[in-house]
Recover the amino acids of this structure.
């Protein structure tokens, strides 16, 4: 059984359907990427899992228990953490305070201290700046802080919404490298939503592609990276036709 | 010194404004009426029931905290997510309701709240000061210190700050944001209750006590609406300015607060201690 099981959820914003029946499973210990263009419903998917919006139809179960309809703070206590899009650090609190807030729901002080050391080991830059207010950090440092803050809750499932947003290519690779290390050393299962398909496919184990509120393609990251449609539409690699050009626009095979 | 004491009360009222505004983005216009309610509750406990002053103070704080929590839970929570305007209208409605209930229960007559502090002045570093003024100043300072320690150094306090800075992220950190709102209202109401008890020896306990809210609002804006030290500083500034103007030109005392507010806002449009500019988004 999958750690996270999403069964045919539909999420609506008023009269507008954002998810039109999405089903997918996340296996324990994997890094799963969800790719797609703007408006595909990737963020809504994460927001629905986190309980910020409730699905109109369908259900989400985590470790065998239904979690849809719970308040977000209850879902976090079950072990599902979301690093929201745009980082959303607490700008007037210091780095150390931000991390402390991440452990708000926990009372095991010794384990929290251990996790703090682990976060600082993962992102040494945060330790250097621990007394600085988070609003003054650079974008990359804020992303590290947002991830570190989520880790302080010791989640079983870490969800990240576009961690590459607004970061330089070098930093994007660094952040994804850190995600990989979190997965390998802490055993955290990761569900990451990305627009940067290349980096995401390079680092994930499994991947799903969403379009217009549906999952249109699923598979291992390697299989998707080899799929000709994905190569053309998401990775921008054109298999050369006559003189490297083609006279017709390719159609996606899944439509 | 009188100015500082009165200013401290303005500051406490402003503090109530700022606490609720920062946490919930609602400007609570019922702050002055909560102050009045606190004074009436204290009077009821001390005069008809004959309880000692300190016990009455503690009970008033507890009662006001319960009132604040109740207001949030049953009045404010249903409108979470509605436009700001709805929240403002609701608090104005609350203000009139509290005033109406108080006039039904206690009536319009003025009452005095006896305090254990002597009225004769005492010599403090060469300045003659009334004991009740000292009590106000000390009470305010103590309250500020307690609030400062709570917000800076307790897990709950830091979580409350976090919730006021980014509600969504606070939710995602397992902070029960709705309960934090309720707690904020409880603290703000308790602070206005304390302010009501402290100011009672200066003024009479009567329905018009709510008018302090106007000065408190000016103090909050002066301090930068959203800054807790700013609220206290703004209150002190207005209180002292009022006292000084009152000595030289008593007829102008009433407008002093607003003149000070205008002048300061000309010089510092964001208020004295407004949010720092250096904030990256």
């Amino acid at each position: 059984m999958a750690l996270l099981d999403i069964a045919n959820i539909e999420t609506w914003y008023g009269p507008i359907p954002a998810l039109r029946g999405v089903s997918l499973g996340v296996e324990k210990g994997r890094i799963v990427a969800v790719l797609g263009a703007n408006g595909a419903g990737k963020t809504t998917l994460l927001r629905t899992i986190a309980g910020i919006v409730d699905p109109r139809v369908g259900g989400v179960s985590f470790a065998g228990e239904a979690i849809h309809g719970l308040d977000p703070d209850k879902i976090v206590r079950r072990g599902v953490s979301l690093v929201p899009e745009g980082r959303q650090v607490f700008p007037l609190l210091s780095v150390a305070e931000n991390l402390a807030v991440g452990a708000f729901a926990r009372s095991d002080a010794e384990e929290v201290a251990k996790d703090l050391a682990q976060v600082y080991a993962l992102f040494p830059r945060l330790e250097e700046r621990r007394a600085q207010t988070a609003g003054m950090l650079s974008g990359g440092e804020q992303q590290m802080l947002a991830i570190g803050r989520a880790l302080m809750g010791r989640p079983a499932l870490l969800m990240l919404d576009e961690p590459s947003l607004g970061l330089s290519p070098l930093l994007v690779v660094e952040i994804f490298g850190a995600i990989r290390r979190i997965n390998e050393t802490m055993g955290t299962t990761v569900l990451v939503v990305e627009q940067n398909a290349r980096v995401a496919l390079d680092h994930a184990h499994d991947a799903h592609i969403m379009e217009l509120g549906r999952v249109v393609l699923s598979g291992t990251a390697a299989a998707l990276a080899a799929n000709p449609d994905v190569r053309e539409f998401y990775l921008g690699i054109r298999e050369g036709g006559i003189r490297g050009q083609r006279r017709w626009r390719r159609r996606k095979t899944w439509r | 010194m009188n100015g500082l004491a009165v200013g401290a009360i303005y500051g406490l009222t402003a503090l109530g404004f700022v606490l609720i505004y920062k946490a919930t983005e609602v400007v609570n216009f019922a702050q002055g009426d909560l102050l009045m309610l606190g004074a009436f509750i204290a009077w009821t406990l001390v005069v008809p029931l004959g309880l000692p002053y300190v016990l009455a103070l503690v009970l008033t704080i507890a009662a006001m905290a319960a009132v604040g929590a109740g207001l949030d839970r049953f009045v404010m929570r249903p409108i979470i997510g509605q436009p700001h305007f709805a929240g403002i209208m609701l608090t104005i409605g609350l203000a009139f309701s509290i005033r109406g209930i108080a006039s039904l229960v206690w009536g319009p007559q003025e009452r005095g709240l006896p305090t254990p502090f002597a009225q004769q002045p005492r010599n403090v570093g060469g300045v003659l000061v009334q004991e009740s003024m000292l009590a106000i100043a000390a009470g305010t300072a103590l309250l500020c210190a307690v609030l400062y320690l709570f917000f800076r150094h307790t897990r709950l306090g830091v979580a409350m700050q976090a919730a006021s800075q980014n509600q969504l992220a606070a939710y995602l950190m397992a902070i029960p944001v709705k309960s934090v709102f309720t707690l904020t209202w409880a603290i703000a109401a308790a602070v206005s209750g304390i302010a009501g008890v402290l100011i009672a020896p200066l003024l009479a306990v009567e329905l018009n006590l709510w008018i302090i809210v106007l000065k408190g609002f000016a103090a909050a804006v002066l301090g930068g609406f959203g800054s807790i030290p700013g609220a206290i500083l703004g209150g002190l500034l207005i209180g002292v300015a009022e006292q000084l103007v009152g000595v030289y030109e008593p007829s102008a005392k009433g407008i002093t607060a607003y003149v000070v507010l205008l002048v300061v806002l000309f010089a510092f449009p964001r208020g004295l201690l407004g949010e720092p500019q250096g904030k990256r988004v």
Residues 2-267 of chain B form a domain with the ABC transporter involved in vitamin B12 uptake, BtuC fold (CATH 1.10.3470). Confidence is low (pLDDT under 50) at residues 277-281 of chain B.
